[in-house]
Amino acid sequence: MAFRTLLPSAAAVAATAVIGGLASRPAQSPWYEQLRKPPYQPPRQAFPIVWPALYADIAVTSAATLDELEARGETAQRKAYLAALATNLTLNAAWSWIFFSRRKLGTAAVAAAALTASSADLTRRAVRVNGAKAAPLGLYPAWCAFATVLSTHIWALNRRS
């Protein structure tokens, strides 16, 4: 993969990580601590391990996919992949703001579902272009699906009747 593709891909993903990380600071707040959470809630230490690995995979797989589409001369598909990636990264960063900063648990559950669908679409596009080399990106929608279930469960546990 070309450095000229990897650099902007990595920069976009890093910006998403920073924006989401800033929004996630309230995860250490009394508000978050007081939320009722399901027993399968991962320990806090899991998130700084899982997300950097997923972000690195998104950046590398996306750069390889964009390079391959360019090499094939598939300009329309390349533009479509870029739009799908931009949408996905926007949804990714938005979830943290919706959940932690705005404290909109129901809206966050819906946003997590949209992120899962977007992540699955991004993976589908990458696998279509790069085959098995892009398969590790499948961990991203799997994690997002888990986050959707978790987010929805947290919302259900903390809704006021």
TrEMBL record:
Task: Name the major location.
Answer: membrane
| GO CC annotations, alphabetized | membrane
Q: Which Pfam families match?
A: TspO_MBR
CDD domains cross-referenced by the UniProt entry: TSPO_MBR
Q: Which UniProt keywords apply?
A: Membrane, Transmembrane, Transmembrane helix
* Recorded topology in the membrane: Multi-pass membrane protein
Subcellular localization is given as: Membrane
**Might you name a Gene Ontology BP term for this protein?**
tetrapyrrole metabolic process
Family statement drawn from the similarity comment of this UniProt entry: Belongs to the TspO/BZRP family.
This one is known as: Tryptophan-rich sensory protein
Organism the protein comes from: Mycolicibacterium fluoranthenivorans
Q: What is the lineage of its organism?
A: Bacteria, Bacillati, Actinomycetota, Actinomycetes, Mycobacteriales
